[in-house]
Records
---
Amino acid sequence: MILVTGASGHLGTNLVKRLVSQGEKVRALVNTHGIDILGVDVMKGDITDADDAKRALQGADIVYHLAAAVDGYGALPKNQVYKVNVAGTKNLIENFSGRRFIYMSTTSVYGYDMKENPATPSTPYNPSSYYGETKAEAEKLTLAHNGVVVRAPVIFGPGFNKSFESLLDSLSKGKIPIIGKGDNHIQWIHINDLMDALLLAKDLGIPGSAYLVAGKDVTTQAGLYGMLAKSIGSEPPKKHVSLPVIRMVAMADAIKSRLTGKPPKVRMEYVNRLVSDRQFDISKAENELGFHPKVAYTQWAKELASGYAPK
C-alpha cells in the first residue's frame, strides 16, 4: 500500500490519480479537506501528531511525503512552518519501516543566490527563506533514514497556473516591464514531468539519494515574456526597470496590504521567480531514474492561452 501525505493539494491529487490509474492501492492522508477519488482510502489526520502519523503508516510499503507548510510570503508563524515541515517529517520517517520513503522537496533549499549554477543534487544548501531552511532540514532527516529526496523548481501546468494567468493579463495590457536586462535563466517544471519523476523514484530511487528534476527547456525572463505574449497575440514588453525599484514597489505594496487587508499586487516571491538566474543539472535523475522531461515551454504557453480570458 502507498501512503500519500498532502494528498488533497494540487500536487497530491495529481499523484494519487496517477497511482490509482496504475492499479496501486493508495491511502490518502488529509488534514483540512478530503479528496473524492474512487478506490482511495482517505484518512483524516495530521502529520504533526505522532499518533496520527503512526496510524497512517500502518501497512504502508511506500510513502510519498508531499505535505508541507508553504510560506512564500511570510504570513505563517515560523513555529507552524517548522512544526509541519520538520517535526511532521520526523514523525513519519522515524516510524516508517516499509520499502521506500520519497520526500517531495524544492529548489528553495538552494536559495535564489545558488552556490553553483547550474545546481546539482550535491550543491550546498543556501536557502533564502525560512521555508527553504525547514525543507533543507526535512531533507537531511529523510536522507539520514535512507529515504529518497525529489527536488523540483517552480511547477507550472494545470492546477498551478493561477499566478501565470495574472501574468498574461499584465502582458495583454502592456503593464509588465522586463526587470533588469531580462537575460537571467529560468528552468521550471511541468506538473506532468514532475509526476513522471515521482513515479520513477518509487521503483528506481536509490535509498539515501537526492534527485534534482526540472523541465527540458531553459529560457530567459525576456524570452518567457515574449513567448507568453505571442501566445495571446500581444506585444512583448520592451520597457526595462531595475530590480531595486521593483523591490521598493513590492515592499511598499506589502505594507499597504497589511494596513488594508487586501492582497498585494506585486509579490516579492513572484518577482524572485522571474528575476533569479537559476539552472539545474538533471543528469543524475536522467541516469539513475530514467527521467526525461517532455513538456516544452511552448506547449505550456498554448495550454495557458487556450484557457485565458482577458479581465
---
Amino acid sequence: MINTNLKFWRRELGLTQSQMADKLGIKRSLVGAYEEGRAEPKLVTLVNMARLFGITLDALVTTDFSRKSNAKAALRQLEPATNSPEPPSPRPADRLRILALTVDKEQNENIELVPQKAAAGYLNGYADPEYLEELPKFRLPMLSSGGSYRAFEIAGDSMLPIASGTVIVGRYVDDWLTLKDGTPCIVVSNKEGIVFKRVFNRLKDSSMLTLHSDNPVYSPYEIDVEDVVEIWEAKSYISSTFPIADLSLTRLASIVLDLQQQMTTLKKA
C-alpha cells in the first residue's frame, strides 16, 4: 500500500514530489521510485512518512487510503467504534517505540550527537526529525550494522574512570525487558534527563529500573519505567582525556620487579 498511500497523502497535503522529498529528507527521485513501486522505503523513511501524514505506521502499510474520497473520511474509518471495548493498555516496557532518525544522501543512518548544552532540548525534540536534523552528525564504520546509534556527551564524575565530557555512543534498545543486569546505558527520562549508568532490570517485578554508578561515592537509585523515554546501550566512547595511571599499582609493580631482580641476584650468588 505504500506507493498508493504516498501518492494519496502527497495530494492531500498539496505537495510536489520535490516538496515531499524535502520534508522527508530524501532525494526527489526516491519519492518517484516509491510512488511507482520501483523501490521500497527504509524503516526510518516509513516512520517519517507516518509522522508527516499524522497516521500510524500500521495504517500506512496496510490501509488503502486511495479508495477513500478524502483524508478525513479515511481517518474516520480507522477510528474504533465508541461502543467497542478498549483493549488493555500495554505495559510501558512492552510498548512499541518508534525512533526518529536522520539519514545521509545514500540513505545510511547517521549517528546524531547530543552535546551537553543540548541535553535539555533533547527531552522535547528526541522524536522530532527536524530537531534531530540540527544536531551534529557523524559515522563510525567499526560499529555493528545491526541497530541504530546515537551519541551523548556526558557530564559529571559518577562513571569514573570515564571522565566528564566523554561522548558515549549507544545502540537503541527497543525491548527494555531484554536488558541484562549491569549493562552500561544512556537512560533518557523526564525527571533525570540524560544519565549514563549501569542498569539493573526490575521491570517484571516492579516496573522499575535500578541505576548504578561506577563511582562508589554515588548511591544507586530506582527510576519508574513510566518516566523513561529512551534507553541506549553503550557500545563505544570517544574521549580527549586519557585514563590517569593508578600510582599505587605502579609502585606495587615496581616493588615486585625489585624483588624479582634481587631473587635472581641471590640465585646467581
---
Amino acid sequence: MINEKDLKKFSEQSNRIFEQIKRDMIGQEDVVENTVIAMIAGGNVLLEGVPGVGKTRLVRSLGRVFNLPFSRIQFTPDLMPADVTGTNIIVKDEKGNSKFQFQPGPIFSNIILADEINRATPKTQSALLEAMQEHTVTVMGNSMKLNEPFFVLATQNPIEQDGTYPLPEAQMDRFMLKLIITYPNLEELNKIVSITQVTMDEVAEAVCNAEELLQMRKTAKEIPVASDVMTYVMKLVMATHPDSECPATVAKKYVRYGASPRAAQALVSAAKVRALINGRYNVSYGDINSLARPVLRHRVKANFEAITEHVTTDDIIGEVIKELGHDTQTSSKDKNPKR
C-alpha cells in the first residue's frame, strides 16, 4: 500500500520532470502533462498537429529528462518493416565462414518517435503493432524483448491527407492517448522565437532514469480507485456505444461504434498517475473527466450524421459526461499548486 513517503517522492519527482521540460517547451501544458502521464502509466501517445509546433522537440526533451535513448523513424511510403525492426545480415566470423547476424533497427530504443506514421504503408505500420502491445519484436521466427521502459510517440499531420494510409482501428486502440497539439498564441510564439535565437538545442537536464520511471509506474498501480469512480468509468465507456445497455442519447444519434474495453483500462491507469502527480492518494471524478477526451477521442467513431453536422468526437464525449452527471469543474484540490 502506498504511504506518505511514496506520495511525496512521486510528487516531487514529477515536479522536477515538468520543470525541466518547460525549459525546452513553451506552452502546450496539457500536451506535456498528458504525455508524461502516458509514459509513467506505460502507454503510447498519438500526437496530431501541423508541422513545426514542437512535436520532435518534445520527444527529444523527454529523452534528455528521463535519460533514455531516443530514436526517430521518419515514416515514408517506401519504408519497409525491416527498416523499423531490423533484419539478419550476413557477416564473416574469425574463420572466414559466413553466418547470419541480427542487426537491430531503430525500434530497439526506449523512446520512439514515429514521425508522420500515416505516410507509411499498412505493412510497415503493422511492424509497430507487436512492439506497442507486447513490447517484443519478432524477426524470422525469433522474438526479442524490447528494453523497458518502452514508449512510442507517433505523429500525424491533420491537414495533408493525400498519399497517406489511415491507421486501422486495431492499431489506434493501442495508443493510450491521442493528443492535439495546437498552434501557440502570440505570447508563446514570441518566447519560442526568442529562445531559438539563442540556441536550437534542448537544455533540459536529466532528473529521472529508467529505474526511477519504472518505480513511479509501480507506485501508480497501487493507487486505490473508489467503487463509485470505477463504476463511473465503466458507465462512461459503455455510454459511448449506441447499442449498449446504457447508451447516452448523443451516442445513439451520432456514434457508429464506441470505445473498447482497453479504453476503460487506459482511463483508470492514466487517472492513477494524474492523481499522484497532483499529490492525491485516490482517483477523483476530475481525473477521469480530464482524461476522457485524450483516451476516447480516437476510439469513438462518429457516424455520417455527426460528420455532416460538424459534431466532433470531443463534442460527443463532452455530452456523454454531462449526461452522466459528473461534468464538474476541476476543483482547487484537484490542482497541483506547485506547477
